[in-house]
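retry 2 of 3: previous attempt timed out while embedding zinc ion. Reduced batch size to 1 and resubmitted. Inputs unchanged:
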Amino acid sequence: MEIASTMVLTGGDGQRFRFDAGTLCLEFLLTGAVEPWELLHEPGDLAAWIPRSRLGVHGRVAVSQAEFLGAKRLRGAVLGLALEAARSHDTEEKVVAARAAGIDESTAAPYAALNEFAAAPPPIPVIGDDRSRGWAAPVTGSQFLSAVARDAIELFSGDRLDRVRMCGGERCWLLFLDVSRPGARRWCSMDRCGNRQKLRTRRKIMK
Ligand SMILES: [Zn+2]
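retry 2 succeeded.
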């Protein structure tokens, strides 16, 4: 039911770039777990973020204080598992650095957390008279977290785990699922870390 999508992010240096996290649960980390800043300070922040996600929510969103706190716990669980999965590649050093920089806010007992949130009902799909697809409004915080947790269970129990990657850019900790056919995606975005690497390589050659 998921739509392929990219999100426009702003890096610490102010550069805007498009990023495709590949899947909903890793996209959810963009609320603050993978960059050294936090977007979720109160329930309204999560309510504002949910329509930006690839879930395709256009109607009203309602997030309670409890759901807001739950969101951070679920995010920590997804992050811990994603870091672990990305670590099996050549990012060991960076994962350690990410943890040292306080990026890692992993939740204890992550699998139990995924199960807990997935147990809540997910958003209810609806079809309009024009056959457009959407979700019954309002989408609640717990429905959204259920969708994230279900996506995470599919990801972390499935055979795409070795496709969970951390961007190869220096000091870039963006995590994504490589859904490309060759499976050779290395960068958060070619416009950002990919280009920087190209420039660096070129400079090395010219020296
Ligand atoms: Zn990057």
